[in-house]
């Protein structure tokens, strides 16, 4: 996910923006683009990443890293 993460073309977003997608969905997301993929599946990938980060045993480290972006 790149939209709203501060990462541009050719830049890798920080790992705290990672969400789990199966191979087929990952490929589809790249082919369609993030916005279309989210609409198609009625999801908000950024919100999912935030929820995953909050639930992580490394949440303190993740939130600290986010403050420095």
How would you characterize this protein structure?
- It is a single chain.
- The chain has 69 residues and is mainly alpha-helical.
- The chain has one domain.
- The protein has helices at 23-32, 34-41, 45-55, 59-67.
- The chain starts with 22 loop residues before the first helix and ends with a helix.
- The model has no long low-confidence stretch (mean pLDDT 82).
Descriptors:
69 residues; mainly alpha; 4 helices
Helix fraction?
55-70%
From N to C, what is the helix and strand string?
Answer: HHHH
Q: What is the overall number of helices?
A: 4
Euclidean distance between termini CA atoms = 15 Å
Secondary structure: number of strands = 0
Q: Decide which structural class fits the backbone.
A: mainly alpha
Unreliable stretches covering 5 or more consecutive residues: none
Q: Which descriptor suits the 3D outline?
A: globular
How would you characterize the largest beta sheet?
none
Strand percentage lies at under 5%
Report the oligomer: single chain
Give the rounded overall mean pLDDT.
Answer: 82
The value of Rg in angstroms is 12 Å
Query: What is the number of domains?
Result: 1
